[in-house]
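Researcher: Going back to the complex we discussed earlier. I've cleaned up the inputs and rechecked each line, so this should be the final set. Can you rerun the prediction on the complete assembly and write out the structure?
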Amino acid sequence: MESLFQRRQPDPERGIVIMSLDTDFKHWLNQATRGLPTQVNTVVRCELEAHYEDALSEHQALGKSLHDAHLSALVELGDVKAVAQALHDVHLAHRRYWKAAFASIAPSIAFLLIVFSQAGHTIPLDLFNYTGLLGFLTFFAVFYVLRSFKVLLAGSHQIGRPTSIVMWSLLCVTILSVISQWLFNNHVALVVNDPMIVTDQLFSETSLPLEWLLNCANVISVLVLGVGWIYLSDRLIGVDDDLYGLVKPLRYLLLLNGVVIASSGLATLLGLFNANVISVIALVIVGTSKYAVWTLLFFRAAYQDSKRPIQMA
Amino acid sequence: MNLKGSLPLLILFILSEGPRHGYRIAKEIKTQSQGVLDFKEGTLYPTLHALEKQELIEAYTEIENGRERRYYRLTDAGRESLTKDLEEWNRYSNAVSLILKGASSS
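Model: Rerun complete. Updated structure for the full complex:
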């Protein structure tokens, strides 16, 4: 056969054609193997190169020109994106879960920091100047967690429009609360980041119109968030009968989380300060436990994923 | 025809006849099905690697025409899995045939 990888043609015109085909296939190969770990990359490239050369040789033996044989071989290999995706599913999917697992630790830490700081100023007061930073950290963590949920949900089920809307709503609520915290860094109601500082100053006469607007949006968001968690928990049950053995704790924690967030929002709306404080304390406990279970879930998913059969397109 | 989900079974079956490299597995699936079962050959390798991770097949390298080639062979676990999957497949296809025969005779 005429190997594209070893041969160098003396004929300049033919040489250009071969170099072009060579570049064409190399481009396909680079796209298919991009991002794979070095060792895997070498093996996969070697296999695909050998496959391509065999196909090229066979098509040429059937009388096709080098150019046509090259095109047929590439068509037979298939869509490069599908191949790259399938390779990533096999060799890299666990990395996403590791990332999610580490990311989901962050909100737990943020929650605990808030609890300690509220409970007795065990954390220097200056930290309050950096609550925006904490919020931003939480935002990234939640973003990763939601993204990983998406991966998890897409593993064996298609994500329906309602689930997608709920997930993105949760993300928007988080962004909204981060923005409000960043803008004012005061006693503005915070949905995800710092719910313990929801007080009767929420709607004071001194509040700016924009504060009023954001506060109203946040209170509504609290309710949306609660409903969202409850809906998401039910969707998660449909993903996998077992969900790595964590289906029951996760389901109950998410349901409970939804209930306490919603009750906190309702108490805020009705001006029931004590009920709100109780809800918020419950929220911190349940929320921290929830993130802990998520962390465990993603760690287990990362471990299981190495043995998970891939889904063929 | 789309191979959706049945590619791992076909690979295990082909490998039960002896070690093969990727290209030959792809060609045998197409040849033995007389071209009915068609698939994009690039996606064969992720499936092979997934089976390897599940320890149903194992890979080894051989030098062929001066270049390294990765061959695959069935493991004991793979042989067991194949037997189970074939039984399952036969039960399934018999059930479908029974229904379709009923439909064609009515």
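Model: Worth noting: Chain A touches chain B at residues 32, 43-44, 46-48, 50-51, 54-55, 76-80, 82-83, 86-87, 89-91, 306-310, 312-313 (CB under 8 Å).
Researcher: Good, that matches what I expected from the previous run.
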